[in-house]
Design a protein that fits this description.
- By secondary structure, the protein is an alpha/beta fold.
- It has 13 helices and twelve strands.
- Helix content is about 40%, strand content about 15%.
- The strands form three sheets. It has a seven-stranded mixed β-sheet with strand order 2-8-7-6-5-3-4, with helices on both faces.
- About 0% of the residues have low confidence.
């Protein structure tokens, strides 16, 4: 049997996504910037995708900009906004458990003379709103937080953050990295006070190499990629029509029967968490299962290094993650586990299980059975 429980790293495409990607590669393969019929047909896919995405967010189509994925969306949101608003100030606020796609560009901006304030989270991954409020200043141009933490599933109360930010300084732009949140929660940026929103396609059963950035029409942001002037001059480069068409299809499908799917997902997660927590010397990290996102559980298997357990489970056809899979095979200290003040043993034995709408109870039962079998053996032979 195979159990794929690494859906926060990437997801299996919907069949309909695969079909539209193939169609736009093999039949409707025109350049959407071309003036002839093939170009017009290709452009229609781009417009339809923007429309489908805008509907899920209840925003305008002109506020959706396609990118190469979540990392580009985050980089553009941060660097593009910082440069466009630098006369107003150079102060930016973020949290201590952001993905590298946010923390790395902010580190770069720091080197360019921007001041970055990092707000801590507690051992459950809860953001201190009091500390955030105290940090906002007249020269704060940008606040950037996740919606859902990619390693532990902690959820940031983005609506409360947005209200607090805009009450303290109406000119401050609020960016949300919703790469693990979009498709799991209904997100309405205008109602919630979100100015910029980053999303990745391959986390929602769409193709890799494509994503989008929602940019509120009132936000000042510089383009980062210059060239042929596509997407109203904001993001040049030939539109990736197969990717964009696939993303539009995935965005529409992921919100069909949404409440029902999330209920099923949360039930599976609760079942997995309960069984894991009953095992000897297994600790659930981050939020309580009822409080976190519906699809992520992070557990430490004390006495066994995470990569040892990961590869042992891989041999059984079970696929999980040790930390974030977006850091290209690097085994660095987990920013999220460090942020929640987990000790070294917990950090080095942490495994992330992430589910999707394709996950079955049979997969979880098989995984639990294998863990129960291998844990005592691995602990017996662990290096002390």
């Amino acid at each position: 049997m195979e159990a794929y429980l690494d859906n926060s790293a990437t997801t299996k495409c919907f069949e309909e996504v695969k079909d539209i990607v193939v169609k736009t590669m093999m039949e409707d393969y025109g350049n959407p910037s071309a003036m002839h019929l093939k170009g017009v047909e290709a452009e229609r896919y781009v417009k339809e995708a923007a429309s489908a995405i805008a509907k899920t967010l209840k925003v305008q189509e002109k506020e959706i900009f396609f990118t190469s994925g979540g990392t580009e969306s985050d980089n553009w949101a941060l660097v593009g906004t910082a440069y466009a608003n630098c006369r107003q100030g150079k102060h930016i606020i973020t949290t201590s458990f952001e993905h590298a796609a946010v923390s790395a560009p902010l580190e770069w901006l720091k080197e360019q003379g921007y001041e970055i304030t990092v707000i801590p989270v507690d051992e459950r991954g809860n953001l201190s709103l009091e500390k955030l409020e105290a940090a906002i200043r007249p020269d704060t141009i940008l606040v950037s937080t996740m919606y859902v933490n990619n390693e532990m599933g902690a959820v940031v109360p983005v609506e409360a953050v947005a209200k607090l930010v805009h009450d303290r300084n109406p000119k401050t732009v609020y960016h949300v990295d919703a790469i693990q949140g979009y498709g799991k929660y209904r997100i309405y940026p205008k109602r919630m006070g979100i100015d910029l929103l980053s999303v990745s396609s391959h986390k929602i059963h769409g193709p890799k190499g494509v994503g989008f950035l929602y940019v509120s029409e009132k936000v000042k942001i510089h383009p980062m990629i210059l060239g042929g002037g596509q997407q109203k001059g904001m993001r040049s480069g030939t539109d990736n029509v197969p990717g964009i068409a696939g993303l539009g299809t995935a965005a529409r499908m992921v919100y069909e029967n949404h409440e029902e799917k999330m209920e099923k997902l949360r039930a599976l997660k609760t079942y997995l968490a309960k069984n894991l927590s009953e095992m000897e010397r297994v600790v659930i990290n981050g939020p309580l299962p009822k409080d976190g996102a519906p699809h992520i559980i992070n557990a430490s298997f004390l006495g066994v290094r995470s990569e040892v357990l990961l590869h042992t489970l891989e041999d059984k056809g079970i696929y999980v993650s040790a930390g974030s899979a977006c850091s290209s095979h690097k085994r660095a200290a987990s920013a999220s586990m460090t942020a929640i003040s987990a000790d070294q043993e917990r950090r080095e034995s942490a495994i992330r299980f992430s589910l999707s709408e394709f996950t079955t109870k049979e997969e979880l039962d098989y995984t639990l059975e294998q863990i129960r079998t291998v844990l005592p053996v691995l602990r017996k032979y662990a290096r002390h």
